[in-house]
Specification:
The strands form two sheets. The chain has an eight-stranded mixed sheet, with helices on both faces. Strands 4-3-10-9 form a four-stranded mixed sheet. It contains twelve helices and twelve strands. Helix 6 runs parallel beside helix 10 and helix 8 crosses helix 11. By secondary structure, it is an alpha/beta fold. It is about 45% helix and about 20% strand. The radius of gyration is 19 Å and the shape is globular. It folds into two domains: about 180 residues, Rossmann fold, CATH 3.40.50.720; about 120 residues, Orthogonal Bundle (N-(1-d-carboxylethyl)-l-norvaline Dehydrogenase, domain 2), CATH 1.10.1040.10. A hairpin with a 2-residue loop joins strand 9 and strand 10. The structure holds nicotinamide-adenine-dinucleotide (NAD). Nicotinamide-adenine-dinucleotide binds next to helix 1, helix 3 and strand 9. The site of nicotinamide-adenine-dinucleotide has 28 residues, from helix 1, helix 3 and strand 9.
Length: about 300
């Protein structure tokens, strides 16, 4: 299968490396030239369990260049999704599909606006990865990947992609209600990301302090109310699920925490900010998410 990955940072490089090693024809596309040059000259370094493998995969920073692909995977941060979707359209062959496994809400809709809605696969992954430097990533965690057609319409290409992923060691399941799956992941990020980013704490710390735990519960409750108003019933124990993930990832800084630590733009608009936007449509007050969103936006606008 010809696969183009747009956004070959931590996750794009990880998926690219697994797919390329299983024999797929992968091209990594990224605007970060040092990273692309390092991959092309030395191979992509993937560190796992203290051992680094070098994998030969072609990479390109010429994002105007198109290569017709059966599958385009978008793995830019959610702030860059629209640009990546424009690129994706140039790279798709007639029956090609676009997959997003990005965090946050709104990515699949933005992609659907640029390519045809029936061509969009959305999903979540519990794999984790970190960029260590140009041409070098760490595979930090392994977990399931869930995918489904965003439009809900059957597409025979989906089962083929699942098989290609499973053959690459990416444990993948097809989900009928991918909207619910994305909401469930969003709730985890709503509960953990902004609070850890603003306070500098690691994920596990949100369980230790009662006031922090209350804040998490309040943010999650608002998000569940907004989901319900949009026809999505989330589990009653959603806050407990957030605490369970926070415990399981206790020593980690959340991705938004890491973005703030490195003074990078965060995905706040697609996470707590998405709750605020979706609440506005239904005239639901969400003061906790509004405050968290405004504080993170203020922080990132005032990086020194
Ligand atoms: P990252 O910052 O490591 O990688 C993003 C890459 O996109 C960067 O290398 C950047 O140069 C590139 N990019 C930006 N604009 C581009 C454009 N127009 N064209 C091509 N490339 C472009 O981010 P990441 O950690 O890999 O995360 C990607 C997405 O996956 C995010 O939505 C994140 O929330 C989600 N996610 C991350 C993890 C994780 O463990 N890192 C796990 C699950 C989901």
């Amino acid at each position: 299968m010809d696969i183009t990955i747009i956004g070959a940072g931590a996750m794009g490089s990880l998926f690219g490396s697994l797919l390329a090693q299983s024999g797929q024809n992968v091209l990594l596309m990224d605007i970060w030239e040092d990273h692309v040059n390092a991959i092309n000259s030395q191979g992509l370094g993937v560190e796992s369990d203290g051992k680094t493998d070098r994998i030969n995969i072609p990479a390109s920073s010429n994002i105007q260049k198109s290569r017709k692909s059966d599958l385009v995977i978008i793995f830019v941060k959610s702030t860059q999704t629209e640009k990546a979707a424009v690129q994706a359209l140039k790279c798709l062959n007639d029956n090609g599909l676009v997959l997003t496994l990005q965090n946050g809400m709104g990515n699949a809709d933005k992609i659907a606006q640029k390519v045809h809605p029936d061509k969009v696969i959305a999903g979540t992954t519990s794999h984790g990865a970190t960029i260590l430097g140009p041409g070098l990533i760490r595979h930090a965690g392994i977990g399931p990947t869930l995918i489904g057609m965003w439009s809900g319409k059957n597409n025979t290409g989906l089962a083929n992609i699942k098989n290609v992923f499973c053959n690459a060691g990416i444990d993948t399941t097809i989900e009928d209600n991918i909207h619910l799956i994305i909401w469930k992941k969003l709730i985890i990020n709503v509960g953990i990301n902004a609070i850890t980013a603003l306070t500098g704490i690691k994920n596990g710390k949100i369980i230790d302090s009662p006031p922090t735990g209350e804040l998490v519960r309040a943010a999650v409750k608002e998000a569940c109310d907004v989901a319900l108003a949009h026809g999505i019933k989330l589990p009653d124990d959603s806050a407990e699920q957030v605490f369970a993930i926070a415990k399981a990832t206790g020593p980690n800084r959340s991705s938004m925490g890491q973005d703030v630590d490195h003074k990078r733009p965060t995905e706040i608009d697609a996470i707590n900010g998405a709750i605020v936007s979706l609440a506005r449509e239904k005239k639901i007050p969400v003061p906790v998410n509004q405050t968290l969103t405004a504080l993170v936006q203020t922080l990132q606008e005032n990086y020194k």
